[in-house]
C-alpha cells in the first residue's frame, strides 16, 4: 500500500525537491560562482560537515501530488519576489505579511530537511506529527522561531550555494529540559534558521542572544516594515558556529 501524505493524510506520497526547482534555477541564474561563470568546482579542503547536505539536490517522499503542487506552491508564491532578490543578495523590504509568509514557507522547508536527511525508519515522530499539524495551521506554531540573514557567498563558493544543516537543541531553562531542532538553510545570499520543539516550547527562548541585529526575526512576526538585508553579513565560519550552537542554560 502506498504511503500516505504526511501533510493532508490523503494522497499517496511522491518524490519532491525540498527546494522547488524554480528557486534552484534562480540560484543558478544569479550566482556568479557556478562553474559556467568560471568559478572553481572543488570545495575548500575540510569544508564538508556532517549533517550537511546540498539542499538543492534534496528529494524527499513525504507529500502527495496535490500538496506538492498546490499547498507548497501557495506557501512559496507570496515569497517569490523577495526570494528572487534575496538569493542574489539584492536589497528589498519586508512588511508584516511577507514576514509571516516567509516564516511559513521556511518552516515547511525546515520540516522537510530532517526527513530528507535520514531514512524513513529514523524520522523523528514529532516532525511527522508536526507536518499534519502544519497542514491545518498553515503557520509555524507558537514557540517556534524563524530568523533570516544574509550570507557572504562571494568568499565561500561553493560551500554555501545551497546547503542545509540540522542540529539538535537541548535547552535547559528554570529546571526544565526542552528538546528541539535547529534547521539552517542557505540559498545563495539568503540564510534562514528555524527552531522547532519536540513537545512544549520554552516560554522564553533566549537562545544565546543570537540575533543581536545580525539576524532578522520573522517568527513571531513583529508588525512593521524592515529593510533587507541586515547590516551584518555572515561568513562561512560564523554560519558553521551557528550550526554547532549550544543554547545557554539558565
Ligand atoms: Zn497531501
List the helices and strands and how they pair.
Layout: E1 13-17, H1 21-30, E2 52-53, E3 59-64, H2 65-76, H3 80-87, E4 92-94, H4 96-117, H5 125-137, E5 145-151, E6 162-173, E7 176-187, E8 190-197, E9 216-219, E10 226-228, E11 233-234, H6 236-243
Parallel strand pairs: 5-11
Antiparallel strand pairs: 1-3, 2-6, 4-10, 5-8, 5-9, 6-7, 7-8
Helix pairs in contact: 1-3, 4-5
The structure holds zinc ion (ZN).
Concise overview:
This protein has 250 residues and is an alpha+beta fold. The protein is 29% helix and 26% strand. It has helices at 21-30, 65-76, 80-87, 96-117, 125-137, 236-243; strands at 13-17, 52-53, 59-64, 92-94, 145-151, 162-173, 176-187, 190-197, 216-219, 226-228, 233-234.
State the main characteristics.
6 helices; 250 residues; two-stranded antiparallel sheet
Structure description:
By secondary structure, this protein is of the alpha+beta class. It has one domain (13-243). The chain contains six helices and eleven strands. The strands form three sheets. Strands 2, 5, 6, 7, 8, 9 and 11 form a seven-stranded mixed beta sheet that branches. α1 (21-30) packs parallel to α3 (80-87) and α4 (96-117) packs antiparallel against α5. 38% of the residues are buried. Bound molecules: zinc ion. Residues 5, 7-8, 10-11, 63-64, 66-67 line the site of zinc ion. Zinc ion is lined by residues 5, 7-8, 10-11, 63-64, 66-67.
